[in-house]
Amino acid sequence: MLAVALLGGLGATADVLVPAPAAQAAAPGLRSVHAPGTVSADERLRAGQCHLRLVNGKLGQYLPDGRCTPGAFDPAVTQANIGSTICRTGYSTKVRPSSYLTSKFKTASLAQYGLRSNTTTEYDHLVSLELGGANSVSNLWPEPNKAGARGTTNPKDAVENTLHRAVCSRRVSLGAAQHAIAVNWVTALRALHL
Fold this sequence. Notes:
Layout: E1 4-6, E2 18-19, E3 31-32, E4 53-56, E5 61-63, E6 72-73, H1 91-95, H2 99-112, E7 115-117, E8 122-125, E9 140-143, H3 155-168, H4 174-184, H5 188-191
Parallel strand pairs: 2-4, 3-6
Antiparallel strand pairs: 1-7, 4-5, 8-9
């Protein structure tokens, strides 16, 4: 995890934050990237090219720029093998890259989103590893936390955990969960009736 904060603080960066649409009609183009234990540079972005979308800063509801972070899944994780992959204890630890390997990508992502280091924002997978997300530039973004937060635990974590339980209990398909969290993690549980 990497901690980041918006330049000048959350209140001073309205030019960086773009209000999120109430609903998104189409799913982003999820990419298929197999990169366990490393980070795939599957796209190249310029500094300042990406902009967070603000849903509710007080609640810590920010969405990544869909043009920069459309989301990606690991094709090695399928509905047929979830019992031996994402639903098995230790899976995420096994495929998560070390902080040493991700450091240059974290630095680049901060610049791409016009952000700087801080202790309250997480460098996060849009489609979480627990949902078969990929370690790729197209799936990683600097995620701000709610106003006044003291750490990196944020509201998206609870959504990821609920979706993971629903997929592993087979109440929701893996593809549906990946799609819902990539489109809009804030509305993902409601979209899947969870």
